[in-house]
Design goal:
Keywords: GTP-binding, Hydrolase, Nucleotide-binding. The chain is α/β, with parallel strands linked by helices. The chain is 41% helix and 15% strand. It folds into two domains: 310 residues, P-loop containing nucleotide triphosphate hydrolases (Rossmann fold, 3-Layer(aba) Sandwich); 78 residues, no CATH class. The chain contains 15 helices and 13 strands. Helix 3 packs antiparallel against helix 12 and helix 12 crosses helix 13.
């Protein structure tokens, strides 16, 4: 966290141009690349104009420990979506010594000026980046709410787990291995949590809503398909219901300015329960068992965005190979610098400063640096250091130096 947390503001992370192309914001990348700790990535999605940015601002304040008014994610009152692309909180917030949480706000689904293909691409990208995915909706989880998530039907077309034809055939069956935990937050909930007159948990309420109806009409079959895919893609799922935060209509219209203490007790209790479920045992964003830090997360996002812009489905295994290769390259460069520094320090002990500089070859044109790097990569360039999977090859000295 920065010294003055009130100065932190949201930043655009994934930008969308007029033609629907994506790009990763360099300013956001610079912030994230400084983060050496593991990242818990919480992405909030939902239909536009359902208050997801307000919910996200509350989560940010809750984790940061500040309930004071501060610049947050845009909250508007028009029929147009406020958020375009994907935005991030200005910097990750520490959860403990080696873990920080990054909040992502996604463009609202179903906006009047966007097509479903765009919605699906944003939705897919958020799923690929998140470790915790929060879906925000209003009212109840009924057939209409299920239908609002119809874009899950096309997820397997927009995401591939592997580039090999063998794995691609069973692509949909493996997506759950890479998808985040799924939290459905139902806002302005007015029902009692009962099943046949007996109290149930909000999680059981979700499970009941995902059970197939067994209807035979086209509409029933379509919704049951969505239910089945949600159940299959998100094996780790939960639900929290939130009542209306205030009863006063005037306060409701200016909700972002209402102090936390003036929100309904029932709302605050449920919201604090949501925080505990999200962050009580928060797992960092991981790929193939490896937790990601800021630089790795930036490389992953860049790989996914590049694939989407090419018109192809992002390939998870290929994106991870790119992350591994970048990390290996950075580690190798760091090792070379450490080796040179240690070698120079040891040699300096036995030579006069003048003799040392002459022997070490401190010429202005820096030719000796190039020679040292050539010694490491065998004169073949950095591409020769890695195999096709991004793994570091064995490093050999040039024959004439052995």
């Amino acid at each position: 966290m920065s010294a003055d947390s009130s100065a932190v503001r949201p930043l655009p992370f994934v930008l969308v141009d007029d033609d629907g192309g994506f790009s990763v914001n360099p300013e956001a990348c610079a912030v994230l690349e400084r983060v050496k700790s593991r990242l818990v990535v919480v992405a909030v999605a939902g239909l536009y104009r359902t208050g997801k940015s307000f919910l996200l601002n509350m989560l940010v304040k809750g984790v940061s420990g500040s309930r004071q008014e501060q610049p947050g994610f845009a909250v508007g009152g028009t029929v147009n979506a406020c958020t375009k692309g994907i935005w991030m909180w200005g910097e990750p917030i520490p959860l403990d010594e080696d873990t920080s949480v990054l909040f992502l706000d996604t463009e609202g689904l179903g906006s009047v000026d966007r097509e479903q293909t765009h919605d699906t691409r944003i939705f897919a990208l958020a799923l690929l980046l998140a470790s915790n995915f929060v879906y925000n909706s209003r009212g109840v989880i009924d057939g209409n709410a299920i239908e609002d998530l119809s874009l899950v039907v096309n997820l397997s077309k927009h995401i591939q787990t592997s580039s090999t034809s063998k794995d691609a055939a069973g692509n949909a069956d493996r997506l759950h291995e890479f998808f985040p935990s799924f939290m459905w937050v139902v806002r302005d909930f007015t029902l009692q949590l009962l099943d046949n007159g007996k109290p149930i948990s909000s999680k059981q309420y979700l499970e009941n809503a995902l059970k197939p109806t067994g209807g035979y009409s086209d509409d029933a079959v379509e919704k049951d398909q969505i239910r089945a895919l949600l159940s299959d893609f998100f094996r780790h799922r939960d639900c929290v219901t939130l009542v209306r935060p205030v009863d006063d209509e005037q306060k409701l219209r200016n909700l972002p300015k209402v102090p936390y203490e003036e929100l309904r007790d029932e709302f605050r209790a449920s919201f604090e329960g949501l925080q505990k479920r999200l962050f009580g045992k928060a797992k960092p964003k991981s790929m193939f068992g490896k937790p990601l830090n800021g630089a790795m997360f930036v490389n992953l996002a860049g790989s996914y965005v590049e694939a989407l812009n090419s018109g192809k489905a992002p390939v998870i295994s290929s994106a991870w190979s790119r992350v591994v290769q970048a990390q290996c390259h950075d580690a190798l460069e760091d090792a070379v610098e450490r080796y040179k520094s240690e070698l120079h320090a040891r040699v300096r002990r036995y030579l006069s400063p003048k003799q040392y500089e002459e022997d070490a070859g401190f010429e202005a044109n820096g030719d000796k640096q190039d020679d040292e790097l050539e010694l490491v990569d065998n004169g073949q360039g950095s591409s020769a250091m890695f195999d096709e999977h991004g793994n570091l090859r064995s490093v050999a000295l040039r024959p004439d130096l052995e």
